[in-house]
């Protein structure tokens, strides 16, 4: 009876420990998810604020532009009028959509990220084409693109020379997949880890969680993720079924 009592006590203790650990892990994971979502929302707000500031700046000057155009027209200075209109068109292009992929949600995500990168002095070379309807949910697509671009910008901002800060984006349809490639310049090398790569800036846990989100989403849709790096460059490729 004593032996049975000891065994039962040990079993109960083990169960209690297991439940405690499970609850601790669950709370920790929930906290990480909440922090990740809050961070994502904050970055999105910064991007929208950046684009809105550009639009407000152009709107503020709109009245002056109209007055200038009226003066040129009244004085029949049509050459000057044409030159001024060309300058306004070029200026408006900076405010207008940078990319038009064919997919509204992808346009919104990419343009907000590109706008933020440009405001930080990062050169962006982007080519993107996508179908109007994509199987991947808008939330999942936002998480993938946001993480890819945020990681690329973090790496670029570590470079002291602004001329070396570059991001290349290429998105296209490859057979039955949406192919996404984001490449960036970087300093040094990243260390391999169980989740792909760890950051030299963030803690490995926080950065790894973002990478895991990309991997989880790719796995969710039976997609594919490939990461490659060498001295001075890092590339991530994601393929998601259409």
Structural description of this entry:
There is one protein chain. It is built from five helices and seven strands, in the order αααβαββββαββ. The protein has 242 residues and is of the alpha+beta class. The chain has a domain of 144 residues: Heat Shock Protein 90, CATH 3.30.565. Strands 1-2-3-7-6 form a five-stranded mixed sheet, with helices on one face. A hairpin with a 2-residue loop joins strand 4 and strand 5. The longest helix is centred in the N-terminal third of the chain and has 73 residues. The N and C termini lie far apart (64 Å).
Task: Reconstruct the topology from this structure.
Blueprint: H1 2-74, H2 78-95, H3 104-119, E1 123-128, H4 138-157, E2 166-174, E3 177-185, E4 192-193, E5 196-197, H5 204-220, E6 224-230, E7 233-241
Parallel strand pairs: 1-2
Antiparallel strand pairs: 2-3, 3-7, 4-5, 6-7
Helix pairs in contact: 1-2, 1-3, 3-4, 4-5
| Second CATH tier, the architecture of the domain at 98-241 | 2-Layer Sandwich
CATH class of the domain at 98-241: Alpha Beta
Count the DSSP helices: 5
Largest sheet: 5 strands, mixed
Oligomeric state, counting identical vs distinct chains? single chain
Rg over CA atoms, rounded to whole Å, is 25 Å
What proportion of the residues is helical, as a percent range?
A: 55-70%
Order of helices and strands: HHHEHEEEEHEE
């Amino acid at each position: 009876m004593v032996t049975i009592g000891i065994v039962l006590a040990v079993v109960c203790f083990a169960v209690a420990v297991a439940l405690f650990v499970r609850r601790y892990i669950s709370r920790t994971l929930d906290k990480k998810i909440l922090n990740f979502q809050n961070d994502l929302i904050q970055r999105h707000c910064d991007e929208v604020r950046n684009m809105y500031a550009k639009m407000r700046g152009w709107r503020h000057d709109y009245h002056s532009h109209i007055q200038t155009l009226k003066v040129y027209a009244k004085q029949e200075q049509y050459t000057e009028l044409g030159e001024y209109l060309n300058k306004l068109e070029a200026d408006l292009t900076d405010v207008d959509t940078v990319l038009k992929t064919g997919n509204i949600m992808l346009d919104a995500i990419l343009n907000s990220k590109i706008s933020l990168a440009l405001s930080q002095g990062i050169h962006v070379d982007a080519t993107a084409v996508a179908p109007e309807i994509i199987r991947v949910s808008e939330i999942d697509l936002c998480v993938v693109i946001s993480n890819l671009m945020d990681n690329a910008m973090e790496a670029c901002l570590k470079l002291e020379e602004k001329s070396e800060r570059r991001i290349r984006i290429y998105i296209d349809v490859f057979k039955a997949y949406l192919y996404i490639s984001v490449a960036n310049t970087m300093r040094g090398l990243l260390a391999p880890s169980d989740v792909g790569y760890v950051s030299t800036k963030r803690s490995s846990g926080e950065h790894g969680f973002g990478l895991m989100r990309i991997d989880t989403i790719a796995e969710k849709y039976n997609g594919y993720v490939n990461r490659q790096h060498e001295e001075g460059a890092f590339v991530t490729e994601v393929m998601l079924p259409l």
